[in-house]
Amino acid sequence: MKRFVRIIKSKLVLFLLLLFVFVYLNNSSFFTEQRSGAPLLLAHRGLAQTFTMEGITGDTCTAERIYEPEHPFLENTIPSMEAAFRAGADIVELDIKPTKDGQFAVFHDWTLDCRTNMQGKVGDFTLAELKKMDIGYGYTADQGQTYPFRGQGIGLMPSLEEVLAYFPDQPFLIHIKSNDPQEGGQLARYLETLPDNRLQQLTVYGGDEPIAALQSSLPGIRVMSLATMKSCLLPYLAAGWTGYMPSACENTQLHIPEKIAPWLWGWPDRLLSRMDRANTRVIVVGGSGSDFSSGFDTPQDIQRLPGGFTGGIWTNRIDRIAPLYQNGGN
């Protein structure tokens, strides 16, 4: 009996050892295709004014806490997007809000109070009325002693249609800033008018309900929400060690906080290759996920990424990050 138990134990140990070796080799960079090239750079809100993230909440007026300006661009404007692409961005992220006259304004905040010289919700105004506002009015780097962008933001709030017409061949990440399914339906009706090759250049993310509504009308477009992230990552965490790829991970986008990424099976190269085969884009954002606006904004930030990283990088300072990968850099 003791001999039998010893045999069982030895076989169990051998099985666990072989299983460990399999899991390790199947999720390491060994025996995987060599990845090369520069990472994909995603410019958050174009080239924008940045601000301290300390103590920030959903109600914080970020225009009142910007750093001393180093460039003249304001977020979510055509000049800021043009500057981002010129600097080296592969994709630009922008925010949309429905207007009173059924269009989409490109603007971040729910209300106009923080950034502009007007008050009220974006949806209370027509696009023509919004264009008369000064979107640079509320920016200050010194607690209101000076306002360096006042008078410079009049007419700069674009519509989504204007942005896509101005940049007919550039990729965008469109952010629905609500959980209203009607916004998803409204956006789907507009995007349905675009040719298929243009839709392939666009990704939409936002609340679960508008993204579900959008996807039901446009099943081929790449989307992301908390629900789509969970439906992909939870089964992947459970079984991805085998190489299994959940169907929910196909044709989507994943924003992975840098502190969580190393816990995903195959990080980084094998995971990226698996997601490439599923036509899914992996974007790494800064921090632990408490704020998905945190990015890699300095050369020191980039050093936290694995060497030779070829996935997507979320940045608020494309002007600082893109040069690291140009002319054979990094």
Automatic annotation (TrEMBL):
Start and end residues of each GP-PDE domain: 59-325
GO terms assigned for molecular function: phosphoric diester hydrolase activity
GO BP of this protein: lipid metabolic process
InterPro entries: GP_PDE_dom, PLC-like_Pdiesterase_TIM-brl
Taxonomic superkingdom: Bacteria
Signal peptide: none
Protein name from the UniProt record: Glycerophosphodiester phosphodiesterase
Species of origin: Paenibacillus lutrae
Organism ancestry: Bacteria, Bacillati, Bacillota, Bacilli, Bacillales
